[in-house]
Amino acid sequence: MEFVSLPVKPLDEELSHRIAAQMAATPGINSDSWFAMIRRYFDELEESGNRPGGLSAGAIRKQYEFWFERKRYDLHQAVPKAEAIDIFYYLEQWAWKTFDEGGGKNQSLLALNLQARRVRELLEALPETALTNLALERIVRTIYQPAPAQFNAVEIGAPAVIHQPGALYGACDELMWWNFLQLETSHFFSRWYQHERNWLGLSGIRLVEPHEENALALWQRKQPLLWTSKRVVLVIPESVEGEPAPPHPLLGDLEATFGELEPITLRIGPQAANKPWQRDLQLPVFTPLPPRQLGRPQPFLRLPSAHRLVAREEETFTSLNSLLYYPYQWIFRHQIKLVNSSILSVVKDRALMGNLAHRFFERLLLQDIYNWTRHDIAQWVDKEANPLLHKEGAVLLLYGREPERVAFINRIKYAAWSLVSLIVQNGWRVSATERPLEGGIAGIRLNGRADLVLEREGEIAVVDLKWSGAQHRQQLIRNEEDLQLVLYARLLSNDDSWAHTAYFIMESGKLIARNELAFKEAVAVAPQVAHTEVNQRILERLEATYAWRLSQIKEGMVEVRCEQTLPHLEDHYGEALMPLLEMKTEDARYDDYRTLINLAE
Questions:
Q1: What's the pLDDT score for residue 2?
Q2: What pLDDT score does 444 carry?
Q3: Alpha helix locations (H) across 26-70?
C-alpha cells in the first residue's frame, strides 16, 4: 500500500491507483479478484491505446511484472543478494531517467538515484551471497539516514544560514540562525562502564568523556555570535513537528547581557507591532476570517428545472435502498458521482473479517460437505486459512495480531459447522454461491448477487451471509424491512411461489428467518405469519415507494431525511405515507455526506 500510494514511484499512476484500491479492500496480492482487476486494466489499456505523453502498454506491463511477478521469499529466510541488487539497480536507473526527462526539476529523484546507487555499491562489495531481512534493513537505513540533500545555488547577496552552531566555518557579516532551539542532547551519565573504557584504552581507543562533550557544546554555542561582525538573525519557531519547542539556552544569556530584547524582536502574527525598523520588510499579512456556521439541515434539496434528474436504467440493491430511504445519498453517489476514495485506508477489521468469512464459505460450499464431520470442517479451514490470508487478509498476519487471527479462525470453524449442519439436517442441497441475479421489478432493471442458494424437492431458499448484526437483522424482519431478501426471493422465483429467505450471522453461527418452514433450528422472528403474504405486501409497498420517489425527483425535490428534519417531513407528508414502506426515523448509518446536508457537528 505504501509503495503504490507514493506520489512518485516507478509504476503507472492509474495502475497504482487500482492496485491500492484492491489492496485496501482485500489486503494481500494474487487473489482471484486481484488477477481479475489486473486483466481488466490491461484489456482497457490495449483497447484505448497508449496514453498521450505516457508510457506504452508494453512498458507498463514490464513495470508490473518487475514489481509483482518476481519470486517472493519468506521474511524469515535469507534472500539472494543478487535479487536485492537487481531492485536497487532498477531504482537507480529509473530515478535518473525520470529526473533527466523532467528537466532536472525534481531534486528528490536525484537524491533517490544517489541513495539507490550507494546501496547497490555496498551490496556488491559485501562478501555474502545471501542477506537476511534484518541485514538488508540495516544497510538501507545506513544509506538513507544521512540522505544527500540537494540545495539550490546560493543567490548573490544572500546571508549565511546555519541550523547548527557548529556549522559556521568562518567569519561573516550577516548570519541567519535557523531554528534557534534547544536541540542539543543532554548527557547525564556515560554510555560506557569504567572497565569498558579501561579495556578500550589498552587498545589505544580513547572515548570522549561526557564532561568533554558538554564543554564542547558550550564552546560551540557562542561561535556564531563571535564570528559574525554586523547582524545575527535568530529564528525561533513556536513549535516543531506540532510540539512546543523551547528556545536555545543561549537566549537567556543574551537577555542577561543586553537586557530587554523586545525592541529588536519581530513576531510574525496578527498582533505584530509596527516598529520603525521593519517598514522595509515585506511580511505576510494575516487576514482574520469570520467563522462560518453550518446551517441546519433542510427537509428538501430543490433542483432547478435545468438540472432535473431521471431514473437510472439499472439499480443494485444498495443503490435502490438509498433511493427509497435516503434519496440525497442516491443523488450524491449515483448521479453526481461523489464517492469516498477507497485507498485512504485499509478496510476496517469488521468489514475485512466479513469479506474473508464470505470467501471461506464460498469455497467451503463448493465441496462435497454432506458427509463431513466437524473435524473434517476444522481440518479444511486450517488448510485454507494461510493461503487465503496471504492473498486477501495479510494485515491479520502482522506481528502482534495472532490472538485476533486465531479467534477469527475459530469463529469460522464454528460458523461453518453450524451452517453445514443446518443445510444437511433440513435436507437442502447447495445450488450456487455468489449467484448473479437479474430481473425487472417496478419497471427497473435490478441486479444483485445471492450469497447462497439452496434447493430441496422443488423448493428454493436464499441465504444472505452477514458477519454480525443479529439483532439488527431480526428487527428488519420484524418490521417487514428485509427488502434485500424479498427482492432476491422474487428474482429466484419463476411463478407466484416465493423462495424461502434467511440471514446467517457468521460471527455467532445463528440463522435468522421469518419462520421455521425452511430451517427448523432457525431463530424464527414471526413464525405465525405466512411468508408469501408478507413478501407480496413488502414488494407492493416497495414498488409504490419507488414510483413516489421518482415523482419527487422529477419535480426537483430531493428529500433529506435525518432526526433534525423528521418533524418537518411528517408535517409535510401527513397521511400520504400510509401505503408506502415505513420511513426511517434516524440518521443514515455510515453516511459520507453529513457535511453536505449540514449535519456535521
A1: 83
A2: 83
A3: 32-48, 57-68
| Residues 474, 481: Cα–Cα separation, whole Å | 10
Burial of 574 (0-12, 13-18, 19+ CB in 10 A): exposed
Please state, in angstroms and rounded to a whole number, the distance separating the CA atoms of residues 446 and 441.
7
Return d(Cα 447, Cα 417) in angstroms, integer: 31
Q: Are strands 300-302 and 557-559 parallel, antiparallel or unpaired?
A: antiparallel
The half-sphere exposure of 165 on its side-chain side, counting CA atoms within 13 A, is 21
Which amino acid, 265? Answer: T
Report which secondary-structure segment, H or E, holds 381: helix 374-392
**Identity of the residue numbered 209:** E
Q: Give pLDDT < 50 ranges for the chain.
A: none
Single-letter amino acid, residue 137: E
Dihedral, CA of residue 214, residue 220, residue 225 and residue 227, to nearest 10 = 150
| pLDDT given at position 574 | 86
Joined grid coordinates for residue 492: 429466484
Long-range own/partner contacts, residues 457-461 (CB < 8 A, 24 or more apart):
457/427, 459/499, 459/500, 459/518, 460/431, 460/492, 460/493, 460/499, 460/500, 461/428, 461/499, 461/500, 461/501, 461/502, 461/518, 461/519
3-state secondary structure at position 389: helix
What's the pLDDT tens digit per position in 284-313? 677 788 887 777 889 999 888 766 777 888
Reading the block at residue 363, the C-alpha cell is 469455497
Would you state the pLDDT for residue 343? 65
The whole-number pLDDT of residue 268 equals: 73
Measured between alpha carbons, how far is residue 112 from residues 94, 98, 461 in Å?
Answer: 10, 11, 59
Locate cell 449467484: which residue? 435
Residue 463, judged by CB atoms within 10 A of its CB (0-12, 13-18, 19+), counts as buried
Crossing angle of the two packed helices 32-48 and 13-25, in degrees rounded to 10: 160
Q: What is the pLDDT, as a whole number, of residue 278?
A: 67
pLDDT tens-digit map of 173-215: 999 998 898 876 655 567 788 888 889 989 899 888 878 888 8
Q: Residue 205 is placed in which grid cell?
A: 581507543
